[in-house]
Specification:
Blueprint: H1 10-31, H2 38-62
Length: about 70
């Protein structure tokens, strides 16, 4: 998606924020466990990367940068 922040609907920013919260909640659930299996450790890394990716997307859109992101 290539849009400037001023043309970006609030709903898209809200959707990105909701996605970021969802990843945070999933990550928090994993962190609460006393021990993580190998699969859970991989999931933790994946969630951290996804969360950071969404955060970068939000920042880029808020700053008006045109950039295309792919997951």
């Amino acid at each position: 998606m290539e849009l400037e922040a001023k043309n970006l609907p609030d709903s898209e920013i809200q959707q990105l924020e909701a996605q970021h919260r969802h990843y945070s909640e999933q990550l928090e659930a994993l962190i609460q466990k006393p021990y993580l299996t190998a699969e859970e450790q991989l999931e933790e890394v994946r969630l951290k990367k996804l969360k950071l990716h969404v955060k970068d997307m939000m920042a880029a859109r808020r700053n008006g940068h045109q950039q295309s992101y792919a997951v």
